[in-house]
Structure formats: structure tokens, C-alpha cells
Amino acid sequence: MFALVDCNNFYASCERLFRPDLEGKPIVVLSNNDGCVIARSNEAKALGIPMGAPEFKYRKQMKKQGIHVFSSNFPLYGDLSARVMNVLEQLSPSLEIYSIDEAFADMSSFGNYDLYEHGLEIRNRVLQWTGIPVSIGFARTKTLSKIANRVAKKTPKAKGAFVLDNQDKINSVLKKIEIGDVWGVGGKYAKSLKASGIKSAYDLAQADESWIRRKYSVVLQRTIRELKGDSCISIEELPEKKQLLVSRSFRERVTNYYQMRSLIAGYISRACEKLRKQKSVARSITVFIRTSPFSEWCWLQ
């Protein structure tokens, strides 16, 4: 058995932690230099604010709808993420931090536990010790645990935890999951699969593996096996990053050469800090600059 723990609307939850008066109110968090929407509370999603929306295009709408807008604070998010992961280490001795707000745990040694009750206990502990709400999904494979987590998050009566522990329950849930919501199935694959009559996770689980491998990839074939309950993806320790990236978007257009040079020097300095923290060395440094795709002119001096 695996568990997937996912922080609910993580960046928005971090901001709400210091503004409890915003509980139940719409919140969005913007990217560096307030470029695009990178996080939304459930209330903001319900108001139609899409992920990745350019702030300037939705500024009037967000103001009219009373949406509270925050600039990103990544040092804060990183600190709170570390606190959440420290609590989750008590969930399992084998923990894989998948992203800043997600972690997989190996539950194979918890055979005598009531996983649902254990999940509620961990959820309550994370909320009490860090103030961050999480959802927990349990299943026989990583892919199924992703789906279980989705059910835990979107089903109020689940109370934030859900266990996929028998085939009838698995089949019932898979029939309700759209193909595009399956972990590992991108938008291009989803469109093609739908055209072939594969519209749900259940349809994919019943598909012919050899045909899927020939038409798409061995990775998608592995996803089918995972949906069938055959664990193909184990818990892994995160490898050292082979590439470090520091990127920013500017709120205002930068046209002065010396100002741009100063900004780039600052970003290179931050990348070097990350490099030293990882105790690595760099073979090369690449700098790229791109004009906003929303700009009426597409050149930069």
C-alpha cells in the first residue's frame, strides 16, 4: 500500500495561515513580480479565475469579485513545506517528497492499521502542528493513490482521507475519473485516447496493453498496470538536480540595458546559492530573456 499526501491549495493555505479572517474567502497567489496566477483557493476557482491567468487581464474582475490577491512568498512556502514533511515522516519511515506540497509514503509495514483512521490522525496532526490542511489517499499503487487522494479532496464526507482497498471500490471510482485526470496522461494523450473511445480511468485500465504500448508508449502501458493494482513505480529518493533554474517575470517592461544586467546578475547569484547548498559544480550558465507574449511588440534591446 502507498499513501499520497497533498496539501490543499498550498500557497493559498500558507497565506491564509496568517490571515485567518480570510477563511472562506477567495484568494489567489501571483507568480514572481505579480505576473500570473499560480494558486487559487476553492472560492477563487468557483469564481472562474483560471490557473496561469495573467494578472493584468483579470485585475478588474478580481477587484469586482472581492478576491484577495497576494504576491508569492516562496521562502515562506518552502519553510512551511519543510514543516509539513517533518510531520509526515511519522507517517512512514520511507517517504518520497514528490513536490513542495506532495509526498508519497510506503505503507507496506502498516498492514494491521486501519488506514482510514490513521490518515485522519495524520491529517489532524499536520493541521494542528502546521496549520496546513492536507488530503490523504491510500491504494496499492502510486497511480491509484493519486486517484484516492483526489477523491479524499473532492468528497466532503471523506473528511480528507480515502482508501482504495478492494477491486469493487476501485472500479467504481475509476469509472468516475476522466482520462485527462489520470496521473501520467497529458492533454495530448487524453485527446487521442478519447477519440479512441477511452474516456475514463476505468476504460484505460481495460484497454489492450500491447496496443497502448505500440500506439503511445511503455510509460502509458505502465499506467494501465498501475490502475489494475500492479505496482510498477516504487518509492524513490529524490536525485540531485542536474539543472538549476532561477526565472522571474517582470511586472513592468524592462528596456534599460544596465537595469537588465543588474537583475540577471542577481538571479545568477541566487542560482549559485542553490548550487552551493547542493554541493555541486556547474559546467555552464545559460541566460535566456523573453518578451511577454501579451506584448504588442516582440523585441528587446
Q: Helices and strands: which structural class?
A: alpha/beta
Count every helix, treating DSSP H or I runs of 4 or more residues as helices: 12
What sort of overall outline do the alpha carbons produce when their principal axes are compared? globular
Helices and strands, in order, run as EHEEHHEHEEHEHEHHHHHH
Q: How is the biggest beta sheet arranged?
A: 5 strands, mixed
**Helical proportion, percent range:** 40-55%
Distance between the termini: 56 Å
Number of strands: 8
Q: Strand order, main sheet: write it out.
A: 5-6-1-7-8
Q: C-alpha Rg, in Å?
A: 22 Å
Please report which band the strand proportion falls in: under 5%, 5-15%, 15-25%, 25-35%, 35-45% or over 45%.
5-15%
Mean pLDDT: 85
Low-confidence runs (pLDDT<50, min 5 residues)?
none
Quick recap:
Helix content is 43%, strand content 12%. It is an alpha/beta fold and 301 residues long. The strands form 2 sheets. It has a 5-stranded mixed β-sheet with strand order 5-6-1-7-8. A 3-stranded mixed β-sheet has the order 3-2-4, with helices on both faces.
